[in-house]
Write a structure and sequence with these properties.
Length: 227
């Protein structure tokens, strides 16, 4: 059965995922979520693949738990393979692991913190309603490093907008954290394409220590505001 949204989540986040589904369906959005929508005696893997194939968008409930979930990684991988749009709904202030970052580096993000969760879910429902109606240009979600309430334009850039001066600034900031190898990593990240947000997200995943990663992310936000 074709649904609007496929919800991917890690089992420890089940209550949050179900709360999101309840609100989405109250807004008239058709949702597929396991195990609720897996047919009795069905092949689980086949049902997952069919549901992803039939969805218009994957909603990823993103957290430290989903970061460590092999099942979530497989679902995201299949969605990317099938060219399905993914919206990570970040319920914890964490960055993706390298395995997920590979698939999510070009996606827009929506943050769902600080608490309470309910207003963030309502904002998600409004955005998805507009998205499914085709009004994407007017309702871009919050980017991965924006604080709640920040204007999307502050960290949203068109593809190919990163110039040599900005890449040098990224290299300088990354070198503060990991040393001379930063030059190579910035060139590699730039070759992979995408806008400033996407390149910065790839580079942030190369930093092992959380305080340094946060410092780099903040520096990237300042670079972005100079566009």
């Amino acid at each position: 059965m074709t649904r609007d949204i496929f919800v991917s989540y890690s089992q420890p986040d089940r209550d949050c995922a179900l709360a999101i589904v309840q609100r989405l369906e109250a807004h008239g959005i058709k949702v597929w979520i396991a195990p609720r929508d897996v047919s009795p005696a069905a092949d689980w893997a086949a049902e997952i693949i069919d549901a992803i194939s039939g969805a218009r968008l994957m909603l990823l409930v993103f957290s430290g738990n989903s970061n460590d979930s092999d099942q979530v990684r497989r679902e995201v991988e299949r969605a990317v393979h099938k060219h399905l749009r993914i919206l990570p709904f970040r319920i914890e202030d964490v960055l993706p692991s390298k395995s997920l970052e590979y698939f999510l580096s070009t996606q827009h993000w929506m943050d769902a913190f600080p608490p309470p969760l309910e207003p963030h879910i309502e904002r998600l429902c409004e955005y998805l309603g507009a998205t499914l109606d085709g009004h994407l240009a007017d309702r871009l979600p919050t980017g991965p490093w924006q604080t709640p309430g920040a204007r999307p334009a502050e960290m949203t850039h068109s593809a190919g907008s990163v110039d040599a001066a900005q890449l040098r600034l990224l290299e300088t900031e990354l070198a503060r954290c990991i040393g001379p190898v930063a030059a190579h990593l910035v060139r590699r990240a730039a070759r992979a394409g995408g806008d400033l947000d996407a390149i910065a997200l790839r580079l942030a995943a190369e930093i092992d220590h959380e305080p340094e990663r946060r410092s780099f992310v903040e520096a990237c936000r300042r670079i972005g505001k100079r566009i």
